[in-house]
Amino acid sequence: MKRLMDKLYSTLCLAVALFPVYVVTGFYWLPGQPATWLLSAGCAALLGALTVLIPGRWRIPWALLCLGALAVLLPLAMLPGSMLVIGFALWGTPREAGEEWPQGYWLFGIVLGLVAQIWAFFLTKEGKPGAEQAANWLKISFAFYVGLFVLNLNHRSLLDGVSRHTHEKPPRTVRTRNTWLSLGSLALLYLAASWRALGNIIGRVVRTVAGWIVAVLAWLSQLFQSEAIRPGGGAGSRSEAFALPPGESSPFWAVLEKIAIVLTMVALVVLVVWLLYRFFKKLRVVFARLRQRLLDTANALSENYVSRTESVFDWQEVKDSAARRLRTLRPFRKRVPRWDELDDRQRVRHGYSELLCKRPDVPSSVTARRALTDHLLIDSQADSAVLADAYDQARYSDLPIQPEQAEAMRKAARIRN
To answer: Which pLDDT tens digit goes with each residue over 304-355?
Structure first.
């Protein structure tokens, strides 16, 4: 189930990145139908995520079946975007969760969004019908994709920073707090970027609340009106002092409405300031805890890394390996010792080395006694038992070697004096 949710998140990012394709094709062939654009992108993302549940050899038929169903159920103008979404989802399915998208693909989505913004700008400037609506949808999708891009970069930087010296992931609590902090920062960024629209919304809310307050006060004033009417046409109601001809507003109610608007705005400002104060106070505490947790984790990982390095690394082994490599790169061969320069023990071992050099096809796993007794290194006329005993005596014992044994090994290896 977790693999499916990871894949669904990946294909959702893919659909958001490729949503400009839906907008462009929909602008020319399905104008004024943003619901169809969104439905096509959502269906493609869902069907692309389900590829993770399909066995490997059935994934391509599944993708073709999904594209056929989308072509039948949805307009054909939406098919290019769906082909891209399902195709990229199918291509990234064999990869591990979170690795379906290399960093270059995220940057490609940014470039595609910028190109779509330029296209929408020129369409709006020309005043074509439906261009304003397409531009608004492109702005929303691009802002959403930028948020996803920032979250992905933050997640990757956390993994790379903490797991630089190990393959282990950061603790789950650290990842959860980091995600919430990133979402809060993105929310503040979106609010700061849309401050003009936010101001208009707040103004409408304030006016609506003020209207409600005035309506409540008017309703309360009607409860205390006197039912008595004086004979002779006198004033029979307490509210007649504020009565005006029909179609005109009373100065009392106009002033009362202004007062209600001011009080509502002051209350909203105080509430917003208090909420921001509480939010930033909590945010500072969370940042401090997260920073301390990251430092503790990084220090622990770095200490473990140093200890493992010191226990595994062997400088002598490195020197020996380098020496062996240098010996193989020498342009000259090692001088072969003369027979008369060796003693009998060295002569026996040198003769056996010459036999091995002449027969490189003999496996190295074969012992010397077996190679000699089975006549793998010598011909059938040689006395294999004498040669095998001589080599074992010269290699594995301190018993003296007789000259006859050394001479037999010399003849077997055909070494000249």
So the answer is: 544 444 445 566 676 777 776 666 555 545 567 788 888 888 888 888 888 8
Helix pair 79-92, 19-29: axis angle to 10 deg: 160
pLDDT in tens, 11-45: 788 888 888 998 888 888 888 888 888 898 888 88
DSSP for residue 333 = P
DSSP helix/strand/coil, 92: helix
Are 88 and 13 in contact by the 8 Å Cβ rule? The answer is: no
Helix axes 103-126, 131-162, angle to 10 degrees: 160
Domain boundaries, the chain: 2-161, 163-222+249-305, 339-413
CA 138 to each of CA 127, 133, 157: distance values in angstroms, whole numbers, following the listed order: 17, 9, 28
Where helices occur in 224-314 by DSSP H, the ranges are 251-312
pLDDT value at residue 115? 92
DSSP string spanning 150-207?
HHHHHHHHHHHHHSTTSSPPPPHHHHHHHHHHHHHHHHHHHHHHTHHHHHHHHHHHHH
**Alpha carbons 180 and 227: distance in angstroms, whole number:** 61
Contact 355, 377 (CB under 8 A): yes
Q: In what helix (H) or strand (E) does residue 343 lie, and over which residues does it extend? A: none
Query: How far is 179 from 276, CA to CA, in rounded Å?
Result: 20
> What average pLDDT does this structure show over 219-246?
49
- Among the listed ranges 147-161, 229-243, 285-299, which one has the minimum average pLDDT value? 229-243
Q: Residue 62 is encoded by which pair of tokens? A: 């599944």
